[in-house]
Amino acid sequence: MSVDTTARVLDPERLRVLTETGLLDSPSVAVLDRLTSLVTRVTGAPVALVSLVDAGRQFFVSAVGLPEPWRERRQTPLSHSFCQYVVSADAPLIISDARADELLCTNLAIPDIGVIAYAGFPLRSPEGRPLGSFCVIDTRPREWSQADLGVVADLAAAVESEIALRLSHTRLLRARKAEARTEQLREVQHAVATSLAEARSSTDAAARTVTAVAGELGWAHGEYWQLGDDEQTLTRIAARTAPGWDAADFSGGSGGFAAHVRATAVPTRVPEAAAPAEATGLGLPVRSGDRVLGVLVFHHDEPLGCDAELLSRLDSVGAHLGRFIERRRADAARRAFERVVSGIDDYVWTVEITPDGALQPVFGSANEAAVFGADLRATPLADLVDPRDAARFAEFRGTVLEGRPGNLEARFIGADGVTRWVWSRAVPRFEEGRVYVDGISTDVTERHRISEQRDELVALVTHELRSPITSIRGYLELVFDDEGSYSPSAEGFLRIVDRKAADLQRLTDDLLDLARLDAGEISVDTRPVSLARLLGDVITDLRPAAEAKHLTIDVVTDGPIVVCVDPARFRQVLTNVVSNAVKYTPDGGRVIARAGAADGVATVSVADTGIGIPADQYPRLFERFFRTSNAVQEGIKGTGLGLAITKAIVERHGGTIAAHPGEPCGTVFEITLPEASP
């Protein structure tokens, strides 16, 4: 028969209680020696033991009659132990002749110690865990009488009482020590809280925290290392050394240690390999949420006692200091921000999107009345919206609530009755599971007034110029028809006049188109058109201009593509885009026009190897009268109206137009349209 003794013997909780008795490796205990001596006299057994079974060994707290060398060693390996089976079974073990016992016949206690007969009773903790055995041993076979076993059992109970008394005493001392430690750590937290309440700055707060912690815990040296704005550099901004100590004894390698703690972002002991109770140095990250703001470092010439409770309390101290520092930084940043905001005319604001879908104001600059004509703390913004723009305002609000960037230009009627145009931009920001929206609103009433006046002037000038220019070109045609009416030398001047008149006519036509588009007076007469054929016709018309500059101009189409467009207007779109590519591409360059369709969307792209567009100017590319800075510098003529007209016509067809940089140079314009149903 074989018995597995491992599980109960190696039970971690049993071993913990065994250590807690304080009897392992202790000197002999007089009261237990009297009990082992008494049991040998009463039973006549030559050997009696109080044996505690540890992991891998049994230790004799008391032993009578044990032969050498075991009497001096006061322990044996478990290979020489009968008591381990008492613990494993948690029951008495009574053996008359171990040599005849299937379980024990091979145990080395028989030949090495002379154990033949054995009677052992379990010694249990107050919670009932078997810790060892109280046993008597004979060196010859023996039948144990009931009287003998009764005496051994009674004395085992007395040994158990002594063990329970020692456990109770140990636990009481530990509880008192823990209470004192807890109270000390509470005092540390209280001292830190008091210090931070009195601190005038982040540096002052760090110095006070170091002093409070090191002072209350009696540690020799403490430091605080602050993380710089670059999120890399650590600078020691506070240090405290107790009287009678030399800071040089502790601070030599603190910078590298602090950097290590900052990198790992976890409490770290010095030396790292030391057991928690033996560490003489400690580094603690100071956090605000998940961000490490700095590192607290403490040293002493004796172990600091870095148990779990100490680390927990000091982590709380670090969090308290981190919140203080972050608050001070936030206050300083807010004051600086408000100083900047106070110097601009725009209204700067922040709202939070609450879980129930509301917009909760967080910040608003002090000039809302100048922008909106009302105090927004007293009047909801929605109440000021001009009814004509209510739908656009609702769309903007919905975009903001979805946490997406938004842009709105709308009219608001202030408390003073004045209607103002306000341009608002909003960008979402996500912090610690919360959604904020930062925005800026600008009064653009004056810009709208100027724009309206400009449009009126453009319309007036267009109509006033159109008739004279038409007349001039008509008379020039009559002159050219009568070749004998002018001299050869005058023809050159007349041709110049004709070209300039043509330029003016194109300009007035563009201006008139814009005016009509703004007024909604231009309709599009759509019909199914072959996109490839229309694009090919435009390329054919512009090929001579491209060849004059030695440009390669190609067209690539992906089969038959049909779109519903106004042929004349969409030809105007393609002509504008392709002619721009030719105009802005230097001699020897290349222009490629492609037409394709996928998923019901037709696409035209025109790529060139021209001078390109500065990256910061793409957003303004389709504005009226806008010309890129490099086009102006190159001296390339233009009015800045073609792309504005092109965009308006494309959008009138339900399409889009966009531009992006080409590879490796130049620009790519891309137009999309719904593909016609078959």
From TrEMBL:
Could you say which enzyme class this protein belongs to?
Answer: transferase
State the UniProt keywords alphabetically. Kinase, Membrane, Phosphoprotein, Transferase, Two-component regulatory system
- GO cellular component terms listed in the entry, alphabetical order: plasma membrane
Against CDD domains, the record matches this protein to: HATPase, HisKA, PAS
Compartment list: Cell membrane
- An example Pfam family from this entry, by short name, is GAF
| Domain PAC per the UniProt entry, residue ranges | 406-456
Q: Might you give the EC number(s) for this enzyme?
A: 2.7.13.3
* Annotated catalysed reactions: ATP + protein L-histidine = ADP + protein N-phospho-L-histidine
Superkingdom of the source species: Bacteria
Indicate where this protein is primarily found: membrane
* Histidine kinase domain mapped to chain residues: 460-677
As cofactor, the record names: a divalent metal cation
Q: Name one GO molecular function term.
A: calcium ion binding
Q: Which InterPro entries match?
A: GAF, GAF-like_dom_sf, HATPase_C_sf, HATPase_dom, His_kinase_dom, HisK_dim/P_dom, HisK_dim/P_sf, PAC
UniProt name for this protein: histidine kinase
Protein source organism: Cryptosporangium arvum DSM 44712
State the organism's lineage.
Bacteria, Bacillati, Actinomycetota, Actinomycetes, Cryptosporangiales
